[in-house]
Amino acid sequence: MRFQIRSPSRLHLSLIDLNGSLGRIDGGFGFALENPNFIIEFNDNDDSIVNRGEKFTFFGPDEYLKHVHLIISKLESKLNIKYENIKITVKKSILPHVGLGSKTQFLLSIVKGLCYLKKINLTIKEMASLVERGGTSGIGYQIFEKGGFILDLGHSYGKNGEKTSFLPSSASKAQPAMAFFHHVMPENWNILLLIPKIKQGANNVEEQNIFQDFTPIPLEEVEKISHRILMQIVPSIINKDLDNFAEALWFINNHGFKKIEIGLQHECISNLLRDIYSTFKVPVGISSFGPGVFVITDSEEKSKEIYKYISSRLEDSSISPGGKIIQTKPNNSGFSLKIF
């Protein structure tokens, strides 16, 4: 059998509650992107691997090899099955540590592919739990399944809760965040991604330290953010109201944990965000810990205008370290499987 799994990237727009006074923390919102994406091929009958007796051969980034080993071991143990002579090839990948959720999409793609080989049906929450994703944000595992816009409600918090401290997904062993709201993204919205040539976004120990150093967030900030999400962000997605979405997102950029995430970036990022918003009044921000910058428009003409504007900034070495721009669209379907 030979097939490919294609999974989307995502924008994580903000966490909601890192205060915990109501007995819940985390929560967040974001949406899936058509590109960049992972395309991973699985093959268990290639002539080059038949009868070698190995569990698998892997062609992809070295940093992912250990994860494939671990996933296969977990599946074999959990489901009492055995894998051998599988060829796994990463044909296309999402750039890691820039805020696009690459690790979650890779892990879920591997689990889905391995389960498909054995005709095993795990729910998306079971798959996320197996690879220990969704312990802070539930956006990544939910967009893998269905794409679109996602709002999740995080985890119970406290002595008997799912979590007893503020931790990023990479360090949290909590079950995947509680799903709450899903809606298709407006298909006429266009996204520009800027991947600047600066230090990659926080991850692992650095990310854990940031959570510990800057939490809890004041309750007043959490209440303001929650109000904006419920009464502006969600209605603007349903009504395809880009202007309202832009206003709400800019407010959130300047409050709560998202303000901290932006404040930890190179100053060229905060300057660019400010200048884009003041000039064009469109949704703009960084995804997760960045440093990837996104801009959303609802017309090709506006996208071209902002693309030209950002390009001119990148060419000016006095204000920018340079980078690349990716043009993409929302993904409203989640992963796909193609059989050859």
UniProtKB/TrEMBL annotation:
<dbReference type="InterPro" id="IPR006204">
    <property type="entry name" value="GHMP_kinase_N_dom"/>
</dbReference>
<feature type="domain" description="GHMP kinase N-terminal">
    <location>
        <begin position="71"/>
        <end position="139"/>
    </location>
</feature>
<dbReference type="InterPro" id="IPR004422">
    <property type="entry name" value="RFAP_synthase"/>
</dbReference>
<keyword id="KW-0328">Glycosyltransferase</keyword>
<dbReference type="GO" id="GO:0043793">
    <property type="term" value="F:beta-ribofuranosylaminobenzene 5'-phosphate synthase activity"/>
</dbReference>
<dbReference type="InterPro" id="IPR053442">
    <property type="entry name" value="Beta-RFA-P_synthase"/>
</dbReference>
<dbReference type="Pfam" id="PF00288">
    <property type="entry name" value="GHMP_kinases_N"/>
</dbReference>
<dbReference type="InterPro" id="IPR020568">
    <property type="entry name" value="Ribosomal_Su5_D2-typ_SF"/>
</dbReference>
<comment type="similarity">
    <text>Belongs to the beta-RFA-P synthase family.</text>
</comment>
<dbReference type="GO" id="GO:0005524">
    <property type="term" value="F:ATP binding"/>
</dbReference>
<comment type="subunit">
    <text>Homodimer.</text>
</comment>
<comment type="function">
    <text>Catalyzes the condensation of 4-aminobenzoate (pABA) with 5-phospho-alpha-D-ribose 1-diphosphate (PRPP) to produce beta-ribofuranosylaminobenzene 5'-phosphate (beta-RFA-P).</text>
</comment>
<keyword id="KW-0808">Transferase</keyword>
<protein>
    <recommendedName>
        <fullName>Beta-ribofuranosylaminobenzene 5'-phosphate synthase</fullName>
        <ecNumber>2.4.2.54</ecNumber>
    </recommendedName>
</protein>
<comment type="pathway">
    <text>Cofactor biosynthesis; 5,6,7,8-tetrahydromethanopterin biosynthesis.</text>
</comment>
